[in-house]
Structures are given as structure tokens and as C-alpha cells.
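Subject: sequence -> C-alpha cells, single chain

Hey, anyone have a minute? Need the predicted structure for the following. Not urgent.
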Amino acid sequence: MASSIGLDPAPPGPADAPALRRRSLPLVGGGEAGRRAAVIPYRDGAAPLPGARATPPPRSVRISVTDRCDFACTYCRPSRHDGYADGRLMTPAWRTMFEALRDAGVRRVRLTGGEPLLHPDIVSIVACLASLGFDDLALTTNASQLARLAGPLRDAGLHRLNVSIDTLDPARFREVTRGGDLARVLEGLDAALAAGFSSIKLNTVVLRGVNDDEIERLALWAWERRMVPRFLEVMPIAEGARLVGEHLVTAAEMRARLAEHLLPEEAVNEPGLGPARYIRARHDPSLRVGFITGTSDTFCESCDRLRVSSTGVLRPCLATDDGVDASREARAGDRAAIRERLDEAWRLKPDGTVWKGCTEETASSVSIRAIGG
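Reply:
Had a minute. Here:
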């Protein structure tokens, strides 16, 4: 295993920022004109400037119910001792937040962390969301707790699962996750398959010299179990910014390594279900593999996501710390006020035709664990 995958100590990213009143976002290509175009005011009642993004309200939301995690993956956290946020929302406040998001027109919800299955009320949180009638309810997990929770989560109304798994080698897994137990993850996947989720996707961050020799093995292993393998470029966000130069494997190279197993066709998105592009398996076209860029090819122009941090900050972009704090409104049970904060946050959404996401200089200082990935 390469020794440069991020084990050296580094300062943690900043905590969730309070609502800012005005912010100039650096754009690819820079220049003063670009900066002026990206200044987005969000005083109450203010209209966005021409450089702001003119889009409908968000239809998709990623909710970080906790920033706690039992892994410390090298591309995500600087160490196991990087600290946690104060002021996390409690379950009653989350219910108000969920109701306000539904009222605002959100139709798709994904629960994230940290590790969402560490939240003591995660099953009741899923049941609450399921009762509110969202079209799609999904969860991303490292699967360390999935063996005991897969059945209860499915019974509570969870539709889909994404499981992060970067290697099938136990020793390598321990190193990449800084202590994770691969056997527990595999037990969790077995439990998820038995529970009958409508979709189980596996997410693998591919790192050159670390796990890129497992791309074929992981794809074939997932297909044998009728799961969807997905391979992600390491992105220059948070700890990933220290890894990209040496460890980036582009999606084009990943696809080339799998060419003999894939149909010679264009990769296509699932409408409304994120940035991954899929290609069908040659031996069985009912099986697919997904590729997620973010470094070689950003996908900001099509992004319709809002993120909610574990402390109740509404964040319109993964690659900045811009956000609007709606925690007070959530704790007060004020759904109407949360909708106002959501409108403010959405006016911060960068214009994806010029903004290039995780390749922007702001991305390296973001805490990916705090914002929810």
C-alpha cells in the first residue's frame, strides 16, 4: 500500500459557517469581472443579482443527520481526532425541518453523515420521512452498523441504499478507513440484500497506487450480487485536495480498464438521481456500472441539490462553506420561517455554467464530514 494516502496530520476543515450576508466566490478563470458576477446578496426580500443562479427551488436534499463517524477515511477526515460540531439538531427539530422541506417542494431525500446509522433515532427518522410522502428516500452508509439495522430501516420505509466500500482486502480496508472492519461491512451488505431494498449501490473512491488494482474485482463482485458498482474520482475537496495530484484516476481510465466487460455505448445519467453516469454490462445488460467525476469533469450545471448539515445549516454547494442557519427556526417548530431561510440559501447556489465545484479553491477547506458528502 502506498504510504502517502493522507495519514499525516492536517488541520481540520472549518466548522459550519453562520449565515453570511454577502460573499464573492472565486471562479475558474478568475478575474475581477468573474468575481463581481458571482457576488450574491441574500438580504431578506432581496432579488439575486444577474450572476446568481436562476433555477427552480431544490427538488433534492441531502441531510446530514450526524457528523459522527466510526471511520476516518483518508480522503474525508484528517484523523480520528478532528473534533465534532456542537449544536446538532434533535429529532423533534428534524421533523420540523423535514416538513418544511416537503412544503417547499422537495421530492427526493438522501440521509448522510458522518455515518447516519450512528444516530440513535435513525429508524424513527426514516419512518418520519416515509410518512411525509417523499417520492424517493435513500441513505448513504459505511455499513458498519447495517447488519442490525437493514431490516428495521427497510420496514420503516427506506427505499434505497448506497454503501461506501473502497476495497475487498481486509488489511487495505483497515488502512484506508483507519480502523474499519471489512467483515462487518460485508455482513451489513448481506443483511441489506436479504432486506429487499429496491436498489443497492456500492461507492468506491479510486486512488492510484492504493486500490485502483481492484476496479475489475469490485465490479464483478458487485454484479454477482446484483448490486450496482460505482467508481468515484477522488476530488480536491477537504482531505481529497492533498491526494488528487498523486492518486487521481479519471473516470475515462476506469472505464478503459473495464472495457472488456462493458457494452460500447454512451454513459447515461439516471434522471433526477445524481451525477453518476452508467454503462451496461456486456454479459448481462440488466447490470450496470456507474462513474462519478467531479475532478476531470464537473457537473455543477445540472446540480439541483441542497444540503442540510447536522447543525441545521442549509448549504447550497458542496464546495463552499456558504450557508444559512435554520436551526433556531427548526427548534422553534416554525416551518414557514425555515422556508424563508431555504429561499435565502438557494439564492447562494453558484451559477454552474461558470462555477466548477470541487475544483474551486474554496473546496479544499470544506469539512466533507460536516456537510454530508
